[in-house]
Design a protein that fits this description.
alpha+beta; four-stranded mixed sheet; three-stranded antiparallel sheet; 7 strands
Length: about 200
């Protein structure tokens, strides 16, 4: 198990293959795992040698899938499904906690959005709200997430912005805002960058 799960790239490749459930090309594993090509190549070599991954075909047409005959197949499949179900539950709870609140854009970003989070990573949540509602909405969202975070063992970090904030961030080409626009995954409402036009109208 140390050789099988002791390497991050092995786990990420196994996760992709398990959740997909079928045959995948190495290039698709690279895309879904967000690993570099060389890391996926080495992981596949290790996993094939350990018998948990089965290859099919040759050369560029080679495909990979989990070996259903391997002793650890069922255990790993249940493990990755449970992990995926937990994350889906967290996203659903965040949406539910924000339901009915006047939020223009609710999204998550940072290490979780990039698939690079660790056990001690915050779950970065962004919300764009009208100025008059900003303080109350963010406080209500933070309070609603307390019990959810305890149940699912994660640390939400809620960052609120109004349209004026968005305008300032955009005009100054703020690095944090640039990264948010590129990696944000929307939970409800609009894309965060859609607020730029509204912000321009507020200043116009």
């Amino acid at each position: 198990m140390t050789y099988l799960l002791g390497v991050d790239s092995n786990i990420r490749v196994l996760r992709v293959l398990s959740l997909h459930g079928g045959m995948l090309a190495a290039s698709e594993i690279v895309r879904q795992s967000r690993l570099v090509q060389e890391s996926v190549r080495k992981a596949l070599i290790d996993l094939v040698s350990l018998g948990i991954v089965s290859p099919s075909g040759t050369g560029r047409s080679r495909l990979y899938r989990l070996n259903t005959e391997n002793y650890f197949f069922a255990t790993l499949s249940h493990l990755f499904k449970a992990e995926n179900d937990r994350f889906s539950e967290i996203l659903g709870c965040v949406r539910q906690c924000s339901s009915g609140l006047p939020i223009f854009s609710l999204f998550y970003y940072g290490s979780v959005a990039r698939g690079e989070d660790r056990p001690d990573s915050d779950f970065d949540i962004g919300a764009i709200v009208e100025t008059n509602d900003l303080a109350s909405v963010i406080e209500r969202l933070r309070q609603a997430l307390i019990s959810v975070s305890e149940t699912y063992a994660f640390t939400p970090n809620v960052v609120g912005m109004d349209f004026a904030d968005v305008g300032r961030l955009e005009n100054s080409a703020d690095p944090w805002w640039i990264s948010v626009k590129s990696e944000a995954i929307v939970l409800s409402g609009n894309r965060p960058e859609d607020a730029i036009q509204v912000a321009g109208g507020c200043h116009g």
